[in-house]
Design goal:
Elements: H1 16-22, H2 28-36, H3 41-51, H4 58-71, H5 78-83, H6 86-98, H7 102-117, H8 120-133, H9 144-148, H10 151-154, H11 161-176, H12 191-205, E1 212-215, H13 220-230, E2 235-238, E3 251-254, E4 264-267, E5 274-275, E6 278-279
Parallel strand pairs: 1-4, 2-4
Antiparallel strand pairs: 2-3, 5-6
Helix pairs in contact: 2-6, 3-7, 4-7, 8-12, 11-13
């Protein structure tokens, strides 16, 4: 299996023998539509399988179903079909079919929040890291070209307005924090940090862990929005780098009501995930800017 040189944290949650027998049990229409627009069907099925691991709020999945249903009617008339390029129509059909299954919706939801902030190239790296953390056997790992074939799907979802507003709000709060200008350089997270964050949210949402502190650099606002909006976690967003205590004294934002316990404390400190006392080398990902959104 692929790895970083230490045991993958998600390996025990997947049955790869079962996946082998079901991965390509697909409809002829799905195969045809994917083939027409160059999407690697196996890479897509693996991505769905990985994303289905996460306990995403059902309300978020259902709102996505509504959004997808409004974008294309399966019984669209011939005039509508003629108005669309064939590749665009096939892509819409693939998305529509993805939205009809739980694993497909999980994939679209993850693409929704990742695509809001990260480029397609960064999303490719995140899925490659998910593969490593899930302990996918070597013969099941998609090629680089196979992951890149999913770019049309990665680019189709860039977060609903409500999620985008949360990201912008929390990021702005961090930038306005009094100590922000005095911080050392805080970089974006890398692919491993993103996957580790999703894993932490999985533990919290399923009650496997009571609380956790996450250091998220420039991406703290995005991570806070994901934790709250996608997983329904109780969060605290904190600065500043100069605070002495690990949790910090300055609270920037919380969605906890009186008496509710915080599950995830997210800080604008430089990201890093310690393993046996050593920080993992983690290359910062490229994020979207105004010209790429």
């Amino acid at each position: 299996m692929t790895s970083h040189g230490f045991p993958p944290s998600l390996a025990g949650y997947f049955n790869w023998a079962a996946f082998r027998t079901t991965a390509l049990n697909l409809s002829a229409e799905r195969l045809s539509n994917c083939s027409k627009i160059g999407i690697d069907v196996y890479a897509l099925e693996l991505a769905k399988h990985l994303c289905n691991h996460y306990p995403i709020l059902e309300s978020r999945k259902q709102s996505l179903v509504t959004s997808v249903e409004s974008s294309i009617d399966p019984d669209v008339d011939i005039d509508r079909k003629l108005d669309l390029r064939d590749d665009v129509y096939c892509l819409l059909k693939v998305i529509n079919e993805l939205a009809s299954s739980g694993s497909g919706l999980a994939f679209l939801c993850i693409c929704n929040v990742l695509g809001n902030h990260y480029t397609s190239q960064s999303m490719e790296k995140i899925f490659e890291e998910l593969v490593k953390e899930a302990g996918v056997p070597e013969d099941l790992v998609p090629t680089e070209e196979a992951w890149q074939s999913l770019y049309p799907l990665f680019n189709s979802f860039q977060g609903p307005p409500m999620f985008t507003a949360l990201v912008e709000k929390y990021t702005a709060l961090g930038n306005e924090e009094p100590w922000a200008s005095a911080r050392p350089e805080i970089r974006h997270m890398g692919a491993l940090s993103i996957v580790s964050a999703f894993m932490a949210m999985w533990h919290l949402a399923r009650g496997k862990q009571p609380w956790i502190i996450a250091l998220a650099g420039m991406d703290a606002g995005w991570k806070a929005a994901v934790a709250e909006w996608l997983f329904g976690l109780k969060i605290e967003l904190r600065g500043s780098f100069q605070e002495e205590r690990l949790c910090g004294e300055r609270l920037i934002y919380t969605n906890c009501l009186s008496g509710e316990k915080t599950q995830m404390v997210i800080r604008f400190n430089p990201p890093g995930v310690p393993v046996d006392g050593e920080a993992i080398a983690d290359m910062p990902l490229e994020v979207r800017n105004e010209s790429t959104k």
